[in-house]
Amino acid sequence: MIGLVMCGGKGTRMESAQEKLLLKYKKPVIYHVISALGKSGCFSKIICATSCNAPKTSKFVKDLGIFTIETKGKGYVEDLNEVLKNFDDNVFVVSGDLALLDSEIIQKIVNDFEDRQSWTSILVSKKFLDLIGIKPEYLVNYDGEQCAFTGISIINPKMIAAMEHVQESYVVIDDKRIAVNLNTKSDYDLLGAA
């Protein structure tokens, strides 16, 4: 399985002069994500999808010795679709802004993954997000419950031809380590209190 970190976004909702993934939570946020993937022992290789939208982040991950794939930077879905064409193995996709991510939760997700699925997205329930003070911008109704995407998916690129017609399956895991996406200043403030 390949670990793919999506880290080429503009981070405009953060309203910060600094690139979002280089904001510090002890170390730069992107470092925590890459480190968690490496420590999990689940991946044959770790790759970062970068773009011209975040040149300092791209340089940072390259300086760590991480292989990068430069995307066009048109948006998360477009960039992911572009990158997935490069792989035959299952891909563990993670947003680069999950500062609380650790190797144990990654191992749990990977070990529970059913290989026959083409696309499995990890969700967190809105009830859980309410408990920890996070306000999601987008919700999906799954199994009678409102949920939010965590930024983690496991994808079998061989089973998908174009992302528009993919049958997505969901798994709900209410865990702070995958619930805190760094999208806005209030998310960053909440992270500091974590």
Any key phrases for this structure?
194 residues; Spore Coat Polysaccharide Biosynthesis Protein SpsA, Chain A; eight-stranded mixed β-sheet; two-stranded antiparallel ribbon; 7 helices; 10 strands
Structural overview:
This protein is an alpha/beta fold. The protein has one domain (2-193): Spore Coat Polysaccharide Biosynthesis Protein SpsA, Chain A (Alpha-Beta Complex), CATH 3.90.550. It contains seven helices and ten strands. Strands 1, 4, 5, 6, 7, 8, 9 and 10 form an eight-stranded mixed beta sheet that branches. A two-stranded antiparallel ribbon has the order 2-3. It is globular. The two termini are 30 Å apart.
Q: How many angstroms does the end-to-end distance come to?
A: 30 Å
- What is Rg? 16 Å
Order of helices and strands: EEEHEHEHEHEHEEEHH
Q: State the helical fraction.
A: 25-40%
* Structure summary, number of beta strands: 10
Number of helices: 7
- Low-pLDDT windows of residues: none
Shape: globular
Structural class by secondary-structure content: alpha/beta
